[in-house]
Amino acid sequence: MPQLARRMGRAKQSAIMLVAERARQLKAQGRDIISFSIGVPNFLPGPHVYAAAREALERDSGQYGSNRGADALLDAFLGHLEAAGLTGYTRANCATGIGAKHVLFNLCEALLDPGDGFAFATPYWTSYLDIGELLGADIQLLPCPPEQDYKLVPAQLDAALARKPRVFLFNNPSNPTGMVYTREEIAALAEVVARHPDTWVITDDIYHRMVFDGVGYHNFLHLRPDLRDRVIFVDSLSKTYGMPGWRTGFMAGPEVVAKALTALNSTHITNVPEVVTAAAVAALSGPQDVPQAQCEGFARRRDQVLEMLAQIPGVVCPRPQGAFYVFPDISVAFGRTHAPTGLRIGSDVELCNALLEAKGVACVPGSAFGEPRALRISYTCPEAQLAPGLQRFREFFAELA
Ligand code: PMP
């Protein structure tokens, strides 16, 4: 049989999807499974989104569309940018894609040659590593351990950017940690970015509407609008509007970058489909109360998770203020045994496997995000499952010998 391309040796299925798959298998066998694994919102978009999609279906042209994105979609995105305090952009600064994942891949493909430096913080969202590896970039990880609240500090970024990576990718609020940078922290990091003009900066801000405790959302561009010639903002419908499967993502940045993405779209996908475009326009320009309301619910769930974790001796968890993830350091369990099953816990992966087998609770091992001392809890399961899931989690730790 002929061989696959060499680059496929570096391509793998997302670890998050693998956990979700195992949980699905156990469920199919009749096990009572509670999934804290996948990061999907627990709400659907408002009826106006479905109405727009239905209407578009009625008059769908069935034709190819714009490589950049339909004008109506770009305009709706421009309105969304303004609402986020990012003004002064035009359609020429924007491009769309099949979800933020696709936009991020395209951006990396457009900006990175093989061997170019690609810097981002650890813990990172899994796909950053996958994208960098597939493109043959020189990945430069910036470790942000729990002792550092999982956040980059200015001196660390300064040292990293002094190596002149081609791209620095920044994620705020963070998946997997849920941490949110304060205005002061963003201001200090923006000053560092300003001192290193050789690096493109991608800000993956797809959770920016999900910020709690009044900390607010801040981007380098709010503090230093002069960085607009090399800071690229990425957003998506998936989390904010409860539309992960609709697959629509966006970028705003320098015209030359938006044009490059338009060219890549022309090669990869041609266009975001018409019906999806209509739904996306409705979500972006319709009532914004759905995302607002969700935030309050998420903050309450976050508190519930932290309260449970606080009852487990030795588990340490910086307090997240956004997204819908909690990322506790569970390394206290390493070297112990789950007494009722006899399963030995040597690592985060073994812990997650044992937790799933023994208690039917699915979490993602931290090593999937580059932090093997932790695991990720995504708290968007159905309301009725949250408390029992947390109780089983706590019981599991209580049963360690
Ligand atoms: N960035 C981050 C930080 C994410 O968590 C995700 C989805 N889990 C994405 C990008 C991709 O989002 P989508 O492709 O659904 O728009």
TrEMBL record:
Belongs to the class-I pyridoxal-phosphate-dependent aminotransferase family. It comes from Luteimonas composti. Its cofactor is pyridoxal 5'-phosphate. Pfam families: Aminotran_1_2. Residues 32-392 form the Aminotransferase class I/classII large domain. One of its GO terms (molecular function) is transaminase activity. Keywords: Aminotransferase, Pyridoxal phosphate, Transferase. This is Aminotransferase class I/II-fold pyridoxal phosphate-dependent enzyme.
